[in-house]
């Protein structure tokens, strides 16, 4: 079957126990824009928050499901262990190091991660994140930071960078990425993060920061027990619904269990697990977030897809109001 290469990261979805603090951290501290305040379509009693560039371009979204009673995360293997966020230059990392210090955010020193400079830090729930410099980076273009962000646009976050997985057995995951999903293997690098590790790099499409998966093999670790601050899944970009349906057929032919077609209104999706159990999603680039809200007012009100609009009163009664005044 003749499929186009996946275009790179689409979004990463994680878990928070406190939507209000989550909003304040990702908008006021990290300067991202809340482009959609909606609910988890599989459980409408919880928020689903989308932070991104100025209009939620695909490849810039970091999203969160709110689970108020979520316990702590016990870090381990067979999980998504770090999400990288792209910033324009090496100088941007200097700006960010000072900003994180000023906001009391736990972080490490700026260092080299492969061929690029990175700055590891944690959010208020212990989720491991890293800012990665786009200086000298080719491949998938980044987005455009929001003009009303508290972070200067020349240093603003421009999208998702590599997503780091930690797995107990690299071989089957590599086979899934290269033989099924069309990723290309790149040279590894050494990185000290939770110990000294070899990081295996895979890229798709145009490559670069926005289209890489970084994998650490750690058979010595116990499996992660997810909770607040853990990552639920990573999604990869496909052009449109027609291409997504080709992927559904390919997985069926390969006898890989999947969700089949899932309507998410803002995009169309397909879910499946790689051999170590990490949840992957393929998601279409469109329609996007401006079908039910104008650009100027994205994320200001609770947005519901049309098929949930009839339940608005019941849904709003079950979720705690969220103050999302502009930072």
Account of the protein in words:
- This protein is α+β, with helices and mostly antiparallel strands.
- Helices cover 18% and strands 35% of the residues.
- It has helices at 19-29, 90-102, 170-180, 241-253, 306-309, 312-318, and strands spanning 9-16, 33-40, 43-52, 61-66, 79-87, 111-113, 116-122, 128-133, 159-167, 184-192, 196-203, 212-217, 231-238, 262-263, 267-273, 279-287.
- An 8-stranded mixed sheet has the order 2-3-4-1-13-16-15-14. Strands 6-7-8-5-9-12-11-10 form an 8-stranded mixed sheet, with helices on one face.
- The radius of gyration is 19 Å and the shape is globular.
- The chain starts with 8 loop residues before the first strand and ends in a 9-residue tail after the last helix.
């Amino acid at each position: 079957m003749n499929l186009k290469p996946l275009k790179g990261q689409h979004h990463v979805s994680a878990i928070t126990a406190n939507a209000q603090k989550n909003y304040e951290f990702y908008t006021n501290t990290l300067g991202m824009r809340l482009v959609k305040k909606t609910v988890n379509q599989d459980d409408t009693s919880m928020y689903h928050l989308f932070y991104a560039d100025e209009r939620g371009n695909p490849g810039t979204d970091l999203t969160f499901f709110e689970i108020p009673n979520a316990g702590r995360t016990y870090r381990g293997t067979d999980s998504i262990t770090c999400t990288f966020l792209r910033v324009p230059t090496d100088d941007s990392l200097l700006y960010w190091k000072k900003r994180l210090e000023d906001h009391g955010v736990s972080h490490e020193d700026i260092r080299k991660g492969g061929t690029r400079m990175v700055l590891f830090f944690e959010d208020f729930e212990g989720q491991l994140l890293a800012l990665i410099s786009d200086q000298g980076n080719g491949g998938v273009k980044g987005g455009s930071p929001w003009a009303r962000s508290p972070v200067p646009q020349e240093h603003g976050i421009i999208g998702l960078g590599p997503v780091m997985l930690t797995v107990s057995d690299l071989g089957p995951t590599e086979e899934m990425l290269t033989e099924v999903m069309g990723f290309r293997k790149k040279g590894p690098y050494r990185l000290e993060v939770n110990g000294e590790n070899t990081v295996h790099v895979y890229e798709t499409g145009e490559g670069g920061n926005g289209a890489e998966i970084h994998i650490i093999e750690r058979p010595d670790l116990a499996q992660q027990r997810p909770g607040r601050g853990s990552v639920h899944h990573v999604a990869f970009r496909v052009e449109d619904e027609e291409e997504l349906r080709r992927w559904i057929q390919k997985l069926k032919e390969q006898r890989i269990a999947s969700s089949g077609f899932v309507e998410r209104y803002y995009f169309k999706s397909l879910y499946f697990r790689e051999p170590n159990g990490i949840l992957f999603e393929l998601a279409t680039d469109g329609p996007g977030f401006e079908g039910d809200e104008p650009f100027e007012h994205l994320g200001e009100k609770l947005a519901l897809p049309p098929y949930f609009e009839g339940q608005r009163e019941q849904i709003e009664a079950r979720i705690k109001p969220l103050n999302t005044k502009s930072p």
